[in-house]
């Protein structure tokens, strides 16, 4: 599959490595050059420096051909905007975001954006082991 990841933090960078190991084609977009540089030279993914919801940046990333778009930044406003652009303008089939602030989860729900909430997932995993 052709996958675009917006956000190269802990989740984005680790997921990128796993997806590449699984044989997917991958593009990573981040506005922070240092985050992209931390991926190292061994990662066979296209890296694009730019604003994660910018139309020209997303076109450069090949969003017209993307099967999946993942918004994994630390900023809910960026994740929400990027998902809406991917879903509503470029008609990407699978669009998923990471909730950064649990108090904003209701916004994702109201906009019908698929999401994961790492904090809730972590809490559930810990509670299941108690």
Describe the structure.
This protein has 130 residues and is α/β, with parallel strands linked by helices. It has a single domain (2-128), classed as Rossmann fold. It is 42% helix and 21% strand. Helix 5 links the parallel strand 5 (94-98) and strand 6. The longest helix has 14 residues, at 76-89. The radius of gyration is 14 Å and the shape is globular. The relative contact order is 0.16. Keywords: Ion transport, Potassium, Potassium transport, Transport.
Summarize the structure.
By secondary structure, this protein is of the alpha/beta class. It has a single domain (2-128), classed as NAD(P)-binding Rossmann-like Domain (Rossmann fold), CATH 3.40.50. Helix content is 42%, strand content 21%.
Detail the topology: elements first, then pairings.
Layout: E1 2-6, H1 10-21, E2 25-30, H2 33-37, E3 46-49, H3 55-60, E4 68-71, H4 76-89, E5 94-98, H5 105-110, E6 114-116, H6 118-128
Parallel strand pairs: 1-2, 1-4, 2-3, 4-5, 5-6
CATH homologous superfamily placement: NAD(P)-binding Rossmann-like Domain
Q: Mean pLDDT, as a whole number?
A: 94
Shape summary? globular
Q: What is the helix content? A: 40-55%
Order of helices and strands: EHEHEHEHEHEH
| Oligomeric state as shown | single chain
Stretches where pLDDT is under 50 for at least 5 consecutive residues are none
* CATH uppermost class: Alpha Beta
Please give the order of strands in the largest beta sheet. Answer: 3-2-1-4-5-6
Provide the structure class: alpha/beta
Strand content: 15-25%
Rg, nearest Å: 14 Å
Query: Main β-sheet, in a few words?
Result: 6 strands, parallel
CATH architecture: 3-Layer(aba) Sandwich
**Would you count the extended β strands for me?**
6
Report the end-to-end length measured between terminal Cα atoms.
Answer: 38 Å
- Number of helical elements: 6
- Taken together, the total number of domains comes to 1
**Any idea of the CATH topology?**
Rossmann fold
